[in-house]
Design goal:
heterodimer; A: 732 residues; Four Helix Bundle (Hemerythrin (Met), subunit A); Alpha-Beta Plaits; 5 domains; 22 helices; B: 121 residues; Rossmann fold; 5 strands; 44% helix; globular
């Protein structure tokens, strides 16, 4: 094997690098290929795709991944022909290329994971590639993948009897222009055995006539060696076109390394210098052309990057997290000791706090990547799915450059894929239905990303049929997800599509599939600490909103106290805190309390009641109400004893050791070393919500408390004001 | 003094392999990702040998060889091009541009060293 003398460790390291590189190359290639489906690729594009496939082939060769080599070779050949215009670009070719890209990606993945794949996995597409090549070459020879790269170790032939060779060698001036050096060749020959060297200096002119860059010497060698003639020829492999070479005593065939065309001419032609016939014919080939082509694309890479193992960054992030905690603990200790004890220590510590925060931001930025890598997979998906369903869909993306933590990006791909599929399958109607409904035949899906505070907001909206609430509710009742007499708001009905095992499609299609539904999407998003919402206008379209934290590692938090416990509220969801007047707090029908603030009523939630904390303040006018806003714009008043302070906290997951606790998203370590739980506002809102419905369903079905009704539906009022609703999300 | 080699390849895998092999044999190795970067490295650093890939973004290997040969300082610097099996046209192009020799990828480390010693004075 060609890699025989690399150590196992090195080989593993090279392999790891190779597959990392492959992943990048494939992503790049796929996005370029999918562009080809809609527009003709220019030579720069084609070159880039070619290079990607070529690099994969080269690497695969180094690791003996024969199948990958063979396939990429064919693929590469086609791209090469496409590049030089022997094959014309059209939709059919583009489609085949895209498929070939898929197969290549799958082969790489299989090779990386050492997976077995069916022997004929790539046969069909390889045949299509060959077919194209055959067509282009007028049905003659195809660029069948050449046999395996020759094992280079063949050159080391086994030891055998010593043979005497006579070698004559007359260099042309060309040899020196290629920076070859006869002396080095002679030295190499010397290593083969016993060498006698005779130098012919007869061509050397007088000093005045001498051209310093010309070649005047020629040599004759007598070599006794056990090496083959091929080995000797190999010594001259780089110069055989720049010299007259004759190696006599030929009993064996030459293995490799020679420019085949010229070889016969060079043999048995001792006459030096008088050799226009032997002049390298190759010289006249238009080598300049591809070179210029490639150079036309010369753009220097503006962003210098380095490749770092993700595990290292994770460690760094973790360590910085610990640093933040330690810094907070230190702050606590300094305060505990009393301010006047060490004014300087306090000053120093403040500086440290600033630096720590900066450091943390820098480290977090390392992991940030544009969502482009996920978004760019979507156009293709849309085309495929739409094609399968005979629908016309135009995908528009915005905000591809929005950056988000790498771990988040990786987890985004699946839910997004599923949701887009879903939008095409269930949302966008077929062209005839659309035309009948007065819409353009082509449906539109908009995928956009934007930063909002410390969250990333992703919208997926379509101008399709919208959610048929009647049907949805009927189905939900059929499936026993809601009770028949439940009185649900439109939003609540829409939310049902996230219920486990729920599928609204009249028939299960092979596009959106069976079983996995929006509930899985929701679970994925919640797993990222995010939320998903749906807004829909029947007949006009549906819009999904994902709100996902930029990073899973830190959170700006407000520490609040309730009884003996301390909790963290995400700072971004807090609007304000206030101590209500007794008169502001009212009991409402169906249980619960609301507080009126500036003419608005907000529902009150007692942390001490939810988490069963003894000794907490039960009268809001004696404690505090923290007004928070959920992602959907609903407001909620959380009743606490007091606010302790604001702090950036490092999120520690509880899920490794605990089952999910409703209302709690994680935990952190406070400055005093105690653990505090991080509250999940959405869940808290949901929990009170559910309690309300339990009461409503049980006791009051049909009539909702007027106050709450206003409150709950108000933020959604703009849903119906246009084709696509805007989302009311706090934009701090 | 150790001989210094510049390896030019857009694939880190390849650069790593060349670099590892040569360093193991006592060479000093500098790396560049493409022809443009190679030229800028060569402005600051003297090297005894250049090993370059052909297919690279920004500036390919053949252009690099040509540009180097056009400079008096690199007229006689040995340059090896990395080609793939069957890349005869590339080999020819590299040769026409003034390359000293070639190495077929994938290469065995000892083969690389053998070729390097053949051209590196």
């Amino acid at each position: 094997m060609s890699d025989s003398s690399f150590g196992a460790n090195e080989l593993d390291r090279f392999r790891a690098t190779f597959f990392e590189e492959c992943a990048e190359l494939i992503a790049d290639m796929e996005s370029r290929l999918s562009c080809m489906l809609t527009e003709t690729a220019d030579s720069e594009e084609l070159n880039a795709i070619f290079r990607a496939v070529h690099s994969i082939k080269a690497g695969a060769g180094a690791f003996g991944l024969k199948r990958l080599v063979t396939f990429s070779h064919t693929f590469e050949a086609l791209l090469d022909w496409l590049r030089d215009g022997r094959i014309a670009q059209d939709e059919r070719v583009a489609t085949i290329l895209v498929k070939a890209g898929d197969i290549l990606a799958a082969l790489v993945e299989a090779a990386q994971q050492g997976k077995e794949i069916a022997a004929d996995f790539e046969t069909e597409i390889a045949n299509e590639l060959h077919g194209l090549l055959e067509e282009a070459s007028g049905g003659t020879s195809t660029h069948r993948a050449k046999a395996e790269p020759k094992s280079t170790s063949e050159s080391v032939t086994p030891a055998k009897a010593t043979v005497d060779y006579r070698i004559s060698f007359s260099p042309h001036a060309e040899l020196f222009r290629h920076a070859n050096e006869p002396l080095l060749l002679i030295k190499e020959l010397e290593r083969f055995g016993t060498l006698h060297t005779f130098c012919d200096t007869s061509k050397l002119p007088s000093l005045a006539a001498m051209e310093p860059e010309d070649a005047y010497f020629s040599w004759t060698f007598e070599l006794s060696t056990n090496r083959s003639k091929a080995d000797i020829a190999e010594v001259f492999e780089f110069v055989d076109q720049d010299c007259i070479l004759d190696i006599s005593e030929s009993a064996e065939e030459e293995a490799f390394g020679l420019f085949d065309d010229d070889e016969p001419k060079a043999l048995n032609e001792p006459a030096p210098d008088s050799s226009p016939a032997v002049a390298p014919t190759i010289e006249h080939k238009p080598a300049a052309e591809p070179a210029q082509k490639a150079q036309s694309g010369a753009k220097s890479n503006a962003n210098a990057t380095i490749r770092v193992d993700l595990a290292r960054i994770d460690r760094l992030v973790n360590m910085v997290g610990e640093l933040v905690i330690t810094q907070a603990m230190l702050a606590q200790q300094i305060i505990d000791q009393g301010k006047d004890q060490g004014q300087q220590a306090i000053q120093g510590h403040e500086d440290l706090a600033v630096l720590t925060r900066e450091l943390q931001e820098c480290v977090m930025a390392i992991r940030m990547q544009p969502v482009k890598s996920v978004f760019q997979r979507m156009p293709r998906l849309v085309r495929e799915v739409a094609g399968k369903l005979n629908k016309q869909v135009n995908l528009v993306t915005h905000g591809e450059q929005t950056e988000v933590d790498k771990t988040v990006i990786e987890e985004l791909a699946d839910p997004l894929t599923h949701m887009i599929r879903n939008s095409i399958d269930h949302g966008i109607e077929t062209p005839d239905v659309r035309i009948a409904a007065g819409k353009p035949a082509e449906g539109k899906i908009v995928l956009s990303a934007a930063h909002v505070g410390s969250n990333i907001l992703i919208h997926i909206s379509d101008d399709g049929a919208g959610i048929n609430r009647e049907r949805l509710l009927k189905k939900a009742i059929e499936k026993g997800i809601v009770t028949p007499n439940a009185n649900l708001s439109d939003e609540e009905i829409d939310e049902l599509i996230f219920a486990p095992g729920f599928s609204t499609a009249a028939a299960v299609t092979d596009v959106s599939g069976r079983g996995v539904g929006m509930d899985v999407v929701r679970r994925n998003i919640v797993g990222l600490g995010g939320r998903i919402q749906v807004q829909s206008t029947f007949g006009k379209g549906t819009r999904f909103t994902l709100i996902i934290p930029l990073t899973l590692a830190v959170l700006d938090g407000m520490i609040v106290a309730s009884g003996s416990e301390k909790y963290i509220l995400p700072l971004t969801s807090i609007i304000e805190s206030f101590r209500p007047d007794k008169s502001q707090v009212r009991e409402i029908t169906g249980g619960g309390q609301v507080a009126s603030i500036r003419g608005e009523y907000v529902r009150l939630v007692y942390l001490c009641k939810i988490f069963d904390v003894p000794g907490a303040v039960l009268e809001p006018w004696k404690g505090l109400v923290v007004l928070v806003e959920t992602a959907s714009g609903n407001k909620l008043g959380i009743v606490v004893d007091e606010l302790i302070g604001q702090q950036q906290v490092v999120i520690k997951s509880l899920l490794d050791n605990f089952t999910p606790v409703p209302g709690i998203s994680g935990a952190t370590i406070l400055g005093n070393g105690r653990v505090a739980l991080i509250l999940d506002i959405e869940q808290l809102a949901g929990m009170t919500e559910r309690r309300r419905h339990a009461t409503i369903d049980g006791r009051l079905s049909g009539s909702k408390p007027a106050l709450l009704d206003d409150q709950a539906s108000q933020p959604h009022s703009d849903v119906d004001d246009g084709a696509l609703p805007r989302l009311a999300v706090g934009s701090r | 003094m150790a001989k210094r080699v510049l390896t030019v390849d857009d694939s880190k895998t390849m650069r790593d392999m060349v670099s590892f092999t040569l360093k193991g044999a006592g060479f000093e190795v500098v790396e560049a990702e493409d022809g443009v970067k190679a030229l800028s490295v060569l402005e600051r650093t003297n090297v005894d040998l250049v090993i370059t890939d052909i297919n690279m973004p920004n500036m390919d290997g053949v252009t690099l060889v040509k540009q180097l040969r056009a400079k008096p300082s690199h007229k006689s610097t040995p340059i090896l091009i990395l080609t793939t099996e069957g890349g005869e046209d590339k080999k020819a192009a590299g040769r026409a541009a003034g390359a000293t020799g070639w190495i077929v990828k994938p290469f065995a480390p000892d083969k690389l060293l053998q070729v390097v010693t053949k051209v590196c004075p």
